[in-house]
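Support reply, case 0932

Customer input (verbatim):
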Amino acid sequence: MPVAFSRLQRTTALPVSKGLVIQSPASGLALPLSEAPEPAAAAGYLGDGVLMQLQANQLVAPFSGLCHRQDQAGQQLRFHHANGLQLDIHFPPQCLNQHGRGFDWLVAEKATVQAGQPVLCVDSALLSQWVQPLYCLITLKQHARFSTIWYRSCYHQAGQDPLFLIELAAQGQGQSA
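Our regenerated output:
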């Protein structure tokens, strides 16, 4: 069943409000998840997030916490923050079918990582044989404390540009992830 309602809002400038700032884990163009070629993702089954057209080879931790692979080949990864925030990165099924080829992991399968730490290098030339343009889906797990999730549909630099700003439902809870 699709997500009942999306808390994700596209904007040209992130609002100046307190909340959780999530740095982009990848460099590339962030687009609405509704543009994803995968019907389940486009319909909202994976949660709120963006389609990221990759324009660099390295992914970094969006915040300090735990990073682990969700599948044997490692094309699905999850980041957990101590405050309960969960961010998932999904690569296209065509990549999964290659059994890990094109992915060079820079951290252990389950690792504690620091914000901005490189976690994965992708071989864009190899993966582009199966997926054009090369992309990943970046989604956030729904959380009762989320009020609104803001993002800008533009180019983002990994580890430097904010990808999401999450306004919290309870006042006075603003913090940076």
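We compared this against your earlier run and they match. Two observations from our side: Confidence is low (pLDDT under 50) at residues 1-5, 172-176. The first strand starts at residue 8 and ends at 11. Please reopen the case if you see a mismatch on your end.
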